[in-house]
Protein 1
Amino acid sequence: MAEVKNKNGLARRIWHEFGRFISVGIVWLMYRVKVYGKENIPQDGAVLILSNHQSFLDIMLCQGWLRRPFYYVPRDTLFVGFWGWMIDSFYTIPINQEQVGIKSMRAIIDVLKHGHIVCLYPEGGRTLDGKIDETKPGFSLLVRRSGAVMLPMVIDGIFERWPRGQKYPKFGGRVGVMYGKPIPADHIKEIGEEKFITEFNKTLHKMHNDLRQKMGKKPLDYN
């Protein structure tokens, strides 16, 4: 069962900022991260960010140096021992990935209704080849129930440094991050789940190739 503790205290925010400064600083120095579209992120209100998933380092890349804290949704089996304590000390919503149901959805919706940012990976897992997989259904429900705006996001470059199946990351290289235009909840309600997923997949694919071109790379074939 998903459970979200009160994570809005001053002490937690200070700890979060300290941890983010250290972890993000190391990752950004290692990979010379370039960010596009920061102006697209709303300064207040509920936001559901959906990003592609290239590596274990995506969490540090998604929020970066942005002042608004992101809530992440790791599987509940990670919340054990010292590292479990570390994960729980930040802004997280634990869920059972084997039985993602209404309780997990309610926990995420509750955080959104309080005006926070939640970051999810709609592919359901890390990519196997660097390309963006199809968005899984159900994410539009979070927007319809919470009234949050949805923000597409893409990452490129970190897959080559730490792909799935590789034990440790390689240093060096360049990584790009791009935030897209916000999608209002009313638009998603109007077109429905099926059309939204089709439209959203096209948006992510276009953003990914736009980002790659900005980084001097060849676009990927998403046809």
Protein 2
Amino acid sequence: MSLNNCYNFDDFRKLAKKKLPAPIFHYIDGGADDETTLRRNTDSFLNCDLVPNILASVGQPDLSTTVLGTKIDMPLFLSPTAMQRLYHHEGDKASARAAEKFGTFYSMSTMATSSIEQISNVSSGPKLFQLYIHKDQSLTDNLIDRCKSSGFKALCLTVDTVVAGNRERDHRWGFTTPPKLTLKSLLSFATHPKWAINYLLNEKFELANVSHFTKKGSSIAKGVMEYINEQYDPAMSWKDAEYCVKRWGGPFALKGVMSVEDAKRAVDIGASAIMLSNHGGRQLDGSRAPFDQLPKIAEAVGGKIEIIIDGGIRRGTHVLKALSMGATACSFGKGFLFALGAGGQAGVEKILKIMKDEITRDMILLGKKKISDLNHTNIAYR
């Protein structure tokens, strides 16, 4: 199997599983506890169907939309994801370049393995930075200020990771940052020599945005769960979120909003957008899927704040269902990470092209010329 034979999410996942050592693959693939929420994130899209209009003379549909103050060429962008250096030696740089080619947002995690400044130098495309509140407020302030000076377009604060979820696959496979050999993982690393050579001979692994503040997660073998539990502030509050909104002073999203009450509060503190997300099913297992919550939240705050669906996106039809139910745009993580692991920048470009082609084709089949034409009349619940 090769990149040429990848036509959908499952194909990229299979190729990434073939190319990546087991601890790395399962870190991308896994969720918390019994992984019920992980599965539900995608299954939720099966509860409704698209209803097309015919003879609509669509021609070539316009997929562009405005998100967080920036016009993007398609209503789908890359979710912020940590430690991309583990999946391919070019990591965030490859993802940022691919997103730029498709005129959509690349999102950088606080726990990225390239720095804010490095990515600013390699990509002129729209960039969003994802922030965590650390116990050391000077670190949080430093990240916000560096994003300002580096030309990032928007900032989002992840609010659902004040403590790490119980990701049992990481324990089972011995996932650490940086990777270390255990009896169980040794065979997997040994049977993936290309990955090992690229990892060892290219840029050193580090959490580049925070390494000057802490060595945890960079120079010592430290599980990502331990890093979260030691460094993130479990007492994070709405006051902290409002502080970040004001310090940033630009387009700002809260990532991890799932309730109507919290969506309304996000409007009150001046956020530009909310990202309906359960962290890819990696935090509170048994929680609702973003798409399941979308109708209630869109009814409550639609038109007052942008709504981004993050979680379970596998197909262009998933994007169109979300947009029809009131979302402004969608983002995805696992899909492009598997593509990154499968083929680096070329892999990310290919999955973005596949998703763009699917959205374009399905817009034509739905009879819709532009994103703003999509609405709840396109949806029928079973």
Protein 3
Amino acid sequence: MTSFSELGIGKRLCAAVAGMGWNQPTPIQVAAIPEGMSGRDMFGQAQTGTGKTGAYSLIVLGRTRPGSDVPTTIVLAPTRELADQVSKEMRNLSKETRHSVAALYGGAPYADQIRRLESGCDVVVGTPGRVLDLHSKGYLKLDAVKELVIDEADRMLDMGFMEDVETIISLTPAGRQTLMFSATLSDEVRGIAERSMRDPMEVSVSHDEPVSDLVRQYYVEVKRNGKMDVLRDIMANGDPKMVVFCSTKKMVDDLYEGLSLEGRKVGAIHGDMPQARREKTIRGFKRDRMNILVATDVAARGLDIDNIECVVNYDAPLDPETYTHRIGRAGRAGRTGVSFTFVTPKEDRRIPSYEDYMDRKVERVTRKQVQKLEIANPELKALHAEDDGDGKPRREKVKVKAVVRKEKAAEGPGMDYTVISLDLGKEAGLNRVAVISHFTSKAGIGEESIGRIGMASASSFVEVDSTVAAEVLKRINGSKINGRKVRATFAPEKTRCRDKLAKR
């Protein structure tokens, strides 16, 4: 088994990788990093979730020195969301190396991005349009670039960005190293690679694992506003351990909030959440502290859990590669699994593309049929309930521990909660995920210090451990969420969230 230390990235990057919780490199990292570290141009076929961002990030950070006045690395991404996600991952990886990373994309203020460039940065991650725009205005220099990364080249082509990409390529030094990644290898993408690279090495890791025959695949034709009802039917059918994939971070937040309000044990992960929070959520999911995980594709990278019984594509993926990657989370280690894909009337043509790609049939089922299907895997239920040596099943023990914690919270004076009221609510785009992330980052407290969260249209109510409530209030009051200043006060009489909301 290959370790990161064997890939030649150096001790500092190995320390950063360990800090992010990456235990071992993915196949594309094993294949790409040693060659990339030698300076060779590279053309990789890799989809989201294979570890390609980590691969090219470790290469460029390992090959360039920090502390530059002008960028020595340019990473081009097709969308603002991807540029944001890549820049955050690179900042996490550069904590030990001290490289400075700037994200440049449209829809964000010019002033902040110009300030980052003028203060000096080593790496620029940006969309082609904003990169060219800031270059034409004289703020972004490209003549010192040693490493050029073109991510998701096929999407660049589909979105009409390739002319801009080729312009940027022409503005960088001829002696640069070029790394290009694409989920598909069309003739157009290959042509650009041939024109911009010197004797490139080709790496292909587009599939995680072949889709197992043990995964039963279904799709349900449903209107957009009917998805939640079908999801409830699936959850009610044997209480399966499941991953629910959404296409956007907002959908993850909305679904998490809706399921939480119903009292379900649910976790959520997406690219805007702090790495520590994502890792904690995944650990909880692995240990059966929750049986539902709502996620985007990027955040679910490296999700390697053998006892997932069901995968739900709440949003049908655009391409068959992503579909294959998602449903491959179930049916592992020789055990059966099931997948459901929700298809709206305009998305029905996607199913044939999945079938052609896998050479397998995806069976159409109605909502009534979903209610009758055997979804939960008895083998996995038995596995979860195995004796740990004290005569009590694992799931039962988890429930007992939860009850004990609740009783201690009620009896112990140190576990009392104080309610903090915020003057922003759903109308300001807030949800429970955003509130938790804001409190943990701004107030410096852990999630264990946060109790219930109540959301109203124009206000929110957050329970925090009374022993730290005064300091939390001090740090939260006057802070900004979604660009809006927060007015925080203590709610009267330590009113609990559910009581406060009941009066509205």
Protein 4
Amino acid sequence: MSDDVEETPPLPPAVAKAPIVLVEDRAAFRLALDGLVQGSGPLALDAERASGFRYSSRAYLVQAHRTGTPNFLIDPVGVGALDDITHELSHLEWIIHAAHQDLPCLREAGVNPVTLFDTELGARLAGLPRVGLQGVVEDVLGLSLAKEHSAADWSTRPLPASWLTYAALDVEYLPQVRDEIHRILGEQGKADIAAEEFEAQLSLAPNTPRTEPWRRLSGLHQIRGPRKLAVARELWVTRESFAEETDTAPGRLVPDRALVAAVLAEPPTKRDLAGLKAFSGRASRSELDRWWSAIERGRATKNLPEARSTSEGPPPPRVWAEKNPVAWARLSASKEELARLSEERSIPSENLLTPDFLRRLCWDAPVDISPPGIRQALLDKGARAWQVNIVAEALSTVFHTVGESEPTAE
């Protein structure tokens, strides 16, 4: 006897109902702006980059839609600066999914929101099970959204028709998604929290450049010794410079694993480097002189790097138990408390409090670990008021408990 398992019927596909208009020059851009001005409701925006193909993070397509308008797909390559979107539509609420990803390239193109509704962040705060656009559309609208072109090379010209449909769907349903998430947040009493978070997104400072960005090289942990690290650094810097010069993603020129293989193999000659099977990539052989010169610079330099990077922040938590056991106890107990609060509030713990803020607080606790002291320490680190209102008292209790359990010297 077999059990019949009832299959869940597939969700209906999300389809573009509004017209799709590709905007490739200034005249068409002007018409698109006029259309958007005449639309109703918030402005839905998205941007497509060419990550993994190009060095730059510029937008190669900007999608814009309002209720009652076409899906305007604006080509910044042909149109140029898009400042007029900001000048003529900044009085509207703008809907962007995962704004932290798109705001830098939008701003580079002259597109800068004043009022934001971030549907990805809103989904997080609402405790939805999935926060990617595809998952959110399925969960709140009951529609299946295809995402097959998310990793495409959007610098391609002309853009294939199927890509244009994909790009249009990324904005056409955003107003409906926004309304559903806004409703859920309101029912949960989180509308004010969400508004504070959306406002904070607009004022986030750009990431501080790393002092030693070459240490991002994947597989660097395999390389031992200052001389080999110097070679790795020169290869990375050389690849980065060439990638910027040619506007090509560094990994497409020579993958990280190939650079690491070249360092570990220690080829005695340029010919040996060329014969190294693991040294691969589209520019590994065609730019052989470039890479060999980098290796020679690394072998000759007197400016040898330290074994590990120097960081202004605390060390990796994996070494805390040995280096600072009290801080490790604070961090472990604080994570448990945040997990409890996360479940209680249906907000991910990383949204309740930025993990870096928690690590810094635990590593170097303030003298005053009362709730007001913890609150001020977190605000000084950049935490939002709603976050510290939720976590300050709980973390103060944790810090006092850990302090009381410390062994005392006899």
